[in-house]
Design a protein that fits this description.
single chain; alpha/beta; Rossmann fold; 7-stranded parallel β-sheet; globular; SDR; NAD(P)-bd_dom_sf; oxidoreductase activity; oxidoreductase; Sc_DH/Rdtase_CS
Length: 265
Amino acid sequence: MRLEGKVVLVTAATNGIGKAIAHLCGKEGASVYLGARNMEKAKGVIKEFEDEGINVKAVYNDASKKETFVSMIEEVVENEGRIDVLVNNFGGSNPRKDLDIKSTEYEEFINTVDSNLSSVFISSQKAIEYMAKQGGGSIINISSVASTSPDISQIGYGVSKAAINYLTKIIATQSARDNIRCNAVLPGMTATDAVKNNLTPEFRDFFLKHIPIKRMGEPEEIAAAVVYFASDESKYTTGQIMEVSGGFGIPTPVFGDLAESKSKR
């Protein structure tokens, strides 16, 4: 029960990584709020969580309506009197339009950057207002390994996540005096429905060649890192960028080929 007594808000929390984070926070004793655009879907998640004894509610959050990043924080504080942990999990791009520097329309690029970055900035700014008054809190931003390893596509997504890494560090620096910590978790390829449905088996197999731990991550493994940053176990840890990616990007770039080769140096 590492989060007992804490109030936690997780954005984009009705599926995938966000749902896993909300679930584990609840199992660790937190009062959990799901930031959700589809409130009907949120009701199903609430029922599922409540059946396990988790204290959970939903607040409306639509990324296309930036004012909801403020209103969701206000609603949590109105209900609970505080917000201890904010997990900025929302983010994404359209892989059919967010391509390389030659092919991506500027409007698509800037909209992706704006959507992903604004969601973190606006919600964090509002949460900090309340956290400072209550004596502290923890903000955890879900970034991506795409922020540190440039790819051949999704330029807007990569740039926005790299900016979120910097925003994490500057929030940590500027809010430490108010006992507010800010850290980021960078998932690698994770076995969510979105990944399973949008990536071909061929691409997944190719990608996995370059991961020392030869598998995709599980959403629950991302959630475990978030719970660490949400708990008092990390109360002296801030401004950190933690990759949870099975070691992706650490070895030599030819690791995948060498690992499969029987030849020796």
